[in-house]
Amino acid sequence: MLEARDISFAYGRAAPVLSGVSLGVGRGEIVGLSGPSGCGKSTLARLLAGYLTSRSGAVLVDGAAPAKGWSPVQYVHQAAYLSVDPRWRIGAILDEAGPVDEALRNQLGVSRRWFERYPHEISGGELQRVVLLRALGPRTRYLVADEVSAMLDPITQVEVWQALQARAGAGLGILAISHGDALLERVATRRLHLEAGRLLPVSGSATKAIGNAGSPQCGKWPLEPANLPA
Ligand SMILES: Nc1ncnc2c1ncn2[C@@H]1O[C@H](COP(=O)(O)OP(=O)(O)OP(=O)(O)O)[C@@H](O)[C@H]1O
């Protein structure tokens, strides 16, 4: 299981974004996470993936503290261009993660014709699929998918999520972050909502017990003039 245990986090001296938040994503699960803009979903994602370190609490990967170096938790976000070296061709970008899984390449609709091109020579949606293919190597046990299909057309979105659901069927645990209720309703095995400082189960989803002490910043929702930044 990929776990956040009672984690708190603040950027510098700013008010905490997360305070005492706990959640778990099991192997084979797709946990959908929604919540208003600015509530800390991506921050939680980056903590789970090891890009940020919590002030207190712990992130555990299958019961252990994350090891240094290559991580079995991969984080993919909406801005695919920020995840790749623009000077590398697509083939080299994919090679970095080891041999390409041909079945997955086909499922994600990644064309071999793109391999000789640079990131700016394929579309944003195509690059997003390349980044997902790179992230889903054989050693990846968890995927933190932060708005990964937001920039895809509806048909490609379905194809990508079918590929991810198949991967989950083979044991991959996925945290799917999205503003798209319809998408999460369709793909998530259970759902959580981060709002007003609490991680809550979305009604109807078979949510496991979770606990959190809240997030002071999220406590400012809904946005009212008094709560807007100066
Ligand atoms: N590097 C940073 N330095 C300072 N503050 C940051 C940084 N990254 C994010 N924040 C702030 O932390 C809060 C949570 O941001 P985060 O990106 O986690 O929200 P989110 O729920 O993912 O939002 P959205 O749905 O709009 O993507 C926001 O108020 C944001 O401005």
UniProtKB/TrEMBL annotation:
Residues 2-221 form the ABC transporter domain. Pfam families: ABC_tran (PF00005). GO terms for biological process: transmembrane transport. One of its GO terms (molecular function) is ATP binding. Keywords: ATP-binding, Nucleotide-binding, Transport. Belongs to the ABC transporter superfamily. This is Peptide/nickel transport system ATP-binding protein. The lineage of its organism: Bacteria, Pseudomonadati, Pseudomonadota, Alphaproteobacteria, Hyphomicrobiales.
